[in-house]
From TrEMBL:
Limits of the CHAT domain: 640-863
InterPro entries cross-referenced by the UniProt entry: CHAT_dom (IPR024983), TPR-like_helical_dom_sf (IPR011990), TPR_rpt (IPR019734)
Residue ranges crossing the lipid bilayer per the database entry: none
Keywords linked to the UniProt accession: TPR repeat
A Pfam family annotated for this UniProt entry: CHAT
Protein's UniProt name: Tetratricopeptide (TPR) repeat protein
TPR repeats: 162-195
Domain of life: Bacteria
Length: 878
């Protein structure tokens, strides 16, 4: 191929050669932005070959040097992305002597600014942030000088200046200097807006998301990511994979490891296709962190090792050390689980801490040293553990919350091992207070609930320490306090009513339509793959938007004390179940006195509860053959009897004939308490925590109407609703074609009692997409944020939508959970499947009781007692 264009058979002029090389450079940038990096390199090398083949007399000209330098700067960056950072840095360094000889100050400033900016960018990609800061300052000065002297492409120069200012902000962010990070990023955004750099501004908002993530403001970070995504979808789809990576990192910080894992499992194949090794390796590292949080240690180690190898090949030593830290965390978790601590493991942790310190990764070094101390502590080397902990530097404002909790845990364990229980409790108390501060900034229900995972081990330690002190009255009161500190914090927040974000409303309407179309396609036997994919993608978009746009949680209520609860409990009894190690226990509060009762094996109780739940589901259909029904009933009675014997009979001397408030744990949320003989006909209320129960009990509601909602596809519900209407004079019915989502939401707003007979489905992957099926599609739990005056009581009559999903910290979510967290005081719902006939009978009896003046728990206890195994309803909240 000839090196230059020819015109009429004659070689092109030097000007033509330079012009063609520039055209190839522009084309290379275009294909590079589209992710076609191999083609980009080919075009860049073709442009260089063309320049080198030009008249030798032109090799020293300003325009020849300028064009060649621009091409080599681009090539350096691409080669570093696909190869090693050292390659790119060496290529950039080789340019400096020739640029320094240029007499034209403007061109010299332009090229020096570009070399320094790109050199710093590669250092940032390698995690060498401190080294990048002076180079970025130099790049900015050169570019500002270039603007003063004049340039033939001011728009390009402004874009480059904005990039350098933004990179300086990012470098400050990564080194923990938040104030200069904010200053530079906001300056870059102002410059970008002033010069209509839409894509650049979107990227800067993306970086501001990173900054807020590091500062601990996850909802604000997610808001910035969402703003960036809207522009990326239109102008820069190649940036979406990087955005998903940063969103996933935010979710890991918030404890939503499952959501983060799904994010990354979608984008990792795309990253492998794009072959951008740095982003791919970072994504694998974050995927490893998510798997570690979910205790999937095999996946965590595989991903972390893959990331470490990629970083090593690129010469990203700092990032490789971070990946090695995740590998270490996996190995430490395995060793602690197996109670076998290899002598070499603490030494390896100390060595890695030293490497991280040398790389100026302060927080990561502190984490490695803390892990070493914890290992030595488990080996019984208390003096060594004390020495190592003394070397751990104090956490900074930007130190991740999981690292803070681990340090507190290690300090508490050391205090306990040395016999200082008071100090151990103090460390646990301080740690959970820090976690509470982080949680207070989360906003959305799922983010608030997710953070509990970071404090789980600290809370478990406190519970074990209390149990070690015996079962005296003082220890029982202390146990009550610790359980309230560690569980169901979601329900501590005062709801903020009437949030109606237009963008979220529009998204939910689209999801509803897609869900309707999907069901129709399934009924018609048409292909559903595309509809399913779109439905899932729109759900994820609404979920991300909901994390910041539909935040509905106000200030936190204080954790309820024994005196607070006892004062409101009156003659009732409160039973709070908990698990410590392999043991089940209960804290019983009656007339101001607290007792701590050990209840045997937690594994046995959990297994019995699960078997009972399976039996109740199996016997739900209305028309089972009698022999089969009898067999299932016999099994269910056996399981309920075993559960009653283990959990309730030991508490009988304290409870006697009192009404009971039950705070379950884990699988006990699936127990319909009325099936236990000890509680048959006993009014029982189920609450996520004593604090949540107290808040629901004190809630003030305006008097309102009784609303009766009947969804589609429930023929039996026609008679059911008609019967219920007779018990409530003036009840408003919303049924048939009138039972639309908007009509039901409108009717719910301000109602005193809302009875909803509609098919429902719990969404295991995301509780806020649990739904009720109405005539025009699904009413999602997400949409309850739109209510300005939540109903006092909601009855969910035809679905299994109680507190279905249990997160760490006994954070119980689901459709009923969203109602309770949103300000509804009482929710009546089934904890297992239930047939149409028993639903209708239960609801008729229940509403008759309400109409006679009985409280919801009393009315439900009487209705369920008729046939407890076929009527698995519970009264939730208050």
């Amino acid at each position: 191929m000839p090196a230059t264009r020819t015109t009429g058979g004659r070689p092109g002029s030097p000007a033509d050669v330079i012009s063609e090389a520039r055209r190839l450079h522009r084309r290379a940038l275009e294909v590079g932005h589209a992710g076609r990096n191999v083609m980009e390199i080919r075009l860049l090398r073709q442009a260089l070959s063309m320049l080198e083949s030009a008249d030798a007399g032109q090799h020293g000209s300003v325009e020849w040097i300028r064009t060649r330098s621009r091409i080599l700067i681009t090539l350096a960056y691409v080669e570093a992305e696909l190869g090693t950072i050292a390659q790119g840095l060496a290529r950039l360094e080789a340019l400096r002597p020739q640029v320094a000889q240029l007499a034209d100050e403007a061109v010299r400033a332009e090229l020096n600014g570009s070399i320094d900016g790109n050199y710093a960018g590669l250092l940032i990609r390698g995690g060498r942030y401190d080294e990048s800061i002076p180079l970025l300052a130099s790049a900015i000065a050169h570019k500002e000088r270039n603007l003063e002297l004049g340039t033939d492409d001011p728009q390009r120069l402004i874009d480059s200046l904005v990039a350098s200012v933004a990179n300086l902000g990012q470098a400050y962010l990564e080194t923990g200097r938040l104030e200069p990070a904010f200053v530079n990023l906001n300056r870059a955004i102002t410059l970008g807006i002033d010069h209509n750099l839409t894509m650049r501004v979107a990227y800067l908002r993306h970086v501001l998301g990173d900054l807020n993530q590091r500062a601990g403001d996850i909802p604000e970070a997610l808001r910035y990511y969402e703003e960036a995504e809207r522009v990326y979808l239109e102008l820069g789809p190649d940036m979406l994979t990087r955005l998903r990576l940063d969103q996933a990192q935010a979710l890991v910080t918030a404890g939503l490891a499952d959501e983060a894992g799904r994010h990354l499992d979608e984008v990792l194949p795309l990253m492998r296709e794009q072959r951008v090794q740095q982003d791919l390796a970072e994504a694998e590292a974050v995927r490893a962190a998510a798997a570690l949080l979910e205790q999937d240690l095999g996946l965590a180690r595989r991903m972390a090792e893959s990331a470490r190898r990629r970083f090593k090949r690129r010469g990203s030593d700092a990032w490789a050390a971070v990946a090695a830290l995740i590998v270490l965390r996996v190995d430490v978790a395995r060793a602690l689980d197996e109670a076998k601590i290899p002598a070499a493991l603490p030494a390896r942790a100390v060595q890695l801490a030293d490497e991280l310190t040398a790389l100026r990764l302060r927080d990561e070094a502190a984490l490695a040293k803390t892990l070493a101390a914890r290992l030595e502590l488990r080996r019984g080397k208390l003096a060594k553990a004390t020495e190592l902990l003394a070397e751990v530097r104090r956490p900074r404002a930007i130190t991740p919350i999981d690292q803070r909790m681990l340090l507190r845990l290690c300090q508490a364990e050391l205090a306990s091992a040395t016999g200082n229980r008071r100090k151990a409790f103090a460390q646990a108390r301080a740690g959970l207070a820090e976690l509470g501060q982080a949680r207070d900034r989360m906003g959305a229900l799922e983010l608030v609930s997710g953070t509990a995972i970071h404090g789980q081990q600290l809370g478990d330690l406190a519970v074990r320490l209390v149990l070690d002190g015996g079962t005296a009255a003082a220890e029982a009161r202390r146990m009550f306090t610790w359980l309230e500190r560690t569980r169901a914090q979601t329900y501590r927040y005062e709801p903020v009513f009437g949030i109606d974000d237009p963008q979220l409303v529009e998204l939910m309407a689209e999801i509803r339509h897609l869900g309707y179309s999907l069901r129709q396609a399934m009924l018609d036997g048409r292909p559903t793959a595309k509809l399913r994919s779109r439905y899932a993608e729109r759900q994820r978009a609404a979920m991300r938007l909901g994390w910041h746009a539909a935040s509905r949680w106000g200030k936190p209520r204080p954790v309820a004390s024994v005196a607070d609860v006892a004062g409101h409990l009156g003659s009732k009894a409160l039973v709070s179940f908990a698990v410590s190690g392999s043991s089940m226990l209960a804290v019983v509060l009656v007339e101001g006195r607290v007792r701590l009762v050990r209840l045997g094996s937690a594994v046995a109780a959990t297994e019995t509860a699960r078997r009972l739940h399976a039996d109740l589901n199996a016997m739900a259909p209305d028309h089972l053959p009698a022999p089969l029904l009898d067999a299932i009933r016999t099994s269910a009675r056996k399981q309920s009897g075993a559960l009653d014997a283990q959990l309730m009979r030991p508490l009988a001397p304290f409870i006697r004939d009192r009404e009971v408030v039950v705070v379950p744990t884990g699988a006990l949320y699936a127990v319909p308490w009325g099936v236990l003989d000890s509680l048959r006909s006993t009014p029982v209320v189920v609450a996520p925590s004593a604090t949540a129960w107290l808040g629901a009990s004190k809630a003030v509601h305006d008097s309102g109407a009784t609303i009766l909602v009947r969804g589609p596809g429930l023929q039996a519900a026609v008679g059911e609703i008609d019967k219920i209407a007779k018990h409530h004079r003036g009840a408003v019915s919303v049924a048939g074609e009138d039972a639309t989502v908007s009509a039901v939401l409108s009717a719910l707003d301000g109602a005193a009692l809302a009875h909803i007979a509609a098919h429902g489905e719990h969404e295991a992957e995301n509780a806020l997409f649990s739904r009720l099926e109405l005539i025009d599609g699904a009413l999602f739990a997400h949409e309850l944020a739109r209510l300005r005056r939540p109903p006092r009581q909601v009855v969910l009559a035809a679905c299994e939508l109680a507190l279905n999903r249990i997160r760490p910290g006994d954070e119980a979510l689901g459709f009923a959970g969203a109602l309770l967290a949103g300000g509804v005081s009482t929710v009546v719902a089934a904890v297992s499947r239930v047939g149409d006939v028993p639903v209708a009978a239960t609801m008729d009896d229940y509403h008759r009781g309400l109409a006679s003046g009985a409280a919801p728990d009393v009315a439900l206890a009487n209705a369920v007692a008729v046939d407890p195994l076929r009527r698995p309803f519970v009264c939730l909240g208050s």
